[in-house]
Design a protein that fits this description.
- With 174 residues, this protein is mainly beta.
- Helix content is 0%, strand content 48%.
- It has no helices and 19 strands.
- The chain has a 5-stranded antiparallel beta sheet with strand order 8-7-10-13-12, with no helix packed on it. It has a 4-stranded mixed beta sheet with strand order 9-6-14-11, with no helix packed on it. Strands 1-4-5 form a 3-stranded antiparallel beta sheet, with no helix packed on it.
- The radius of gyration is 28 Å and the shape is rod-shaped.
């Protein structure tokens, strides 16, 4: 019986003693040891023990696979890697791309089925500092007097301006 897979990533096992026909050989061969292969597509199979590496690239991000902090992860051919990305407070995770990554919608991402070494690119935006300045005025954020406030890129900050008696705010400029 010929071995055949139709789904990329599907494993095919061949038991020892099995005869198989190789189109590029002179007839049948007999398998000496059990073999397990993974279907790669286009009638291509690769030994199931082959390993590939997912490398995570980017600054200001912590990547975890199975709760373990990693910068790369070795996996067997035909497997996928599910991971999470954490960024420090006030930093913004802008994108996670490469390796056919899918956002699972629960704070995790999954690569496509792996058939080669791949890189996952993570882009994190630095925080922005909003500086308040002026004369005869006090700026407060959450009731606390400040001269600046660090926020996420694209974020906003609510503030109040207090002036001494007899003064009023003439303008607020960006």
């Amino acid at each position: 019986k010929p071995f055949q897979a139709s789904v990329i990533g599907e494993k095919v096992s061949i038991a020892a003693g099995t005869k198989i026909w190789l189109s590029n050989a002179a007839g049948y061969i007999t398998i000496a040891d059990d073999w397990t292969y993974v279907y790669k597509g286009n009638n291509t199979y690769v030994d199931a023990t082959t390993e590939y590496t997912v490398t995570f690239s980017g600054n200001n991000a912590t990547v975890k696979v199975g709760g373990e902090k990693v910068t790369s992860k070795a996996v067997k051919i035909g497997e996928k890697v599910t991971f999470s990305v954490e960024v420090p407070e006030n930093y913004t995770l802008q994108s996670v791309s490469g390796a056919g990554v899918t956002d699972n919608g629960d704070g995790t991402y999954t690569t496509t089925t792996l058939f080669e070494n791949v890189t996952v690119n993570i882009v994190v935006l630095d925080p922005v500092t909003v500086t308040f300045s002026g004369e005869n005025a006090t700026v407060k954020v959450d009731g606390v007097q400040v001269t600046s406030k660090t926020i996420k890129t694209g974020g906003s900050v609510m503030f109040t301006i207090e002036t001494p008696t007899g003064y009023q705010v003439a303008s607020v400029k960006n």
